[in-house]
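hi! just following up on the protien thing from before. the input was this:
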Amino acid sequence: MNPTYITSLDKVAGIGAQERARLAPVLDLFAFRSNDYYLSLIDWEDTKDPIRRLIIPSLDELEPWGRLDPSSEHRYTRAPGLQHKYRETALMLVSDLCGGFCRYCFRKRLFIGDAREVNRDVSGGLAYIRDHPEITNVLLTGGDPLVLDTGRLRDILNRLREIRHVRIIRIGTKMPAYDPYRIINDPALVDAIRECHDGENLVYIMAQFNHPRELTDAACRAIALLQDAGAVVMNQTPLIRGINDDPAVLSRLLGRLSFIGVNPYYVFQCRPTTGNRAFAVPVEESYRIFEQARATCSGLSKQARFVMSHATGKIEVVGKTGGFTYFKYNQAADPEDIGRFMVYKSNPQAYWFDDFGESDLLDAADAGIAGTLGETDESPGVL
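and the predicted 3d structure came back as:
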């Protein structure tokens, strides 16, 4: 099978003329892209089908909310197409196209108008990485790197491998879900991954399966090919209203990933991106869903962490009691913040870390945890 790509709702048989007319204002703002393989996963009789919700535009996207750059990625751009936020990790935006456009995408600004964050000439980014020996990890993202021509991707991988201090290359991709035949039908792509893996320097595929129905036989075959080529395959997914916000669904997803040797990595809080209000779940509700899902998983499926990709770092939600919510920086732009533990008064209406105000940051003793997590002279609410 070679999927046919579709960029117009006129080509989607499950969408009638009246619905297309209603959705025209949405398409004026946010582009549509999919393919016939992925659209075949939709149950068109179910108006709340999660795959439909993931890929088909909806009027909810017109609700005013959020920002186009909710994690302030622009702050960390050091060279054209190159972000350096965390000491050991650089991020290269190598593609401005995806196999499909997720309706909740946090980087949809790349597909609007004349966005120029992606740089097809990667030489500036490579030079920056070469000059910074602390960078041991490079994440290729976009857009989706697996949309690139295989020769182009192989060239980028080979040039990265020439930089001795780069020990891990990560490829962030949803193509195993959107178009597994991109991998199945292109042995040269699999060979490029194999050539890049030498037993010590690893390639990680950071897949994005959001719902268990995406784990089709073809998707599992594609994953197996990548694993056979020596890639370590991880999965990360946002927690999205109407897609995987049911603990039973999220549990099935985490479980099925572990069955095929894919390690659940992060479950993300939906970022407050423009157009994403209808997909978002409040932080504390998301955490409850996450923990309820993990409760019915094996230990291997429990590896995922629930985090927010905040402007200041990866902030994990680590606990919730009746009156308090507990956070910790897993990673941070400021190294001094790494490991920082914070206690806030509960806020069931908070959708993002910024919604927990400074006035709600508690002294550890007031939260009843001093002596348990250690005494501190740090600022209130921080351990």
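The first strand starts at residue 5 and ends at 6.
Residues 17-29 form the longest helix (13 residues).
cheers
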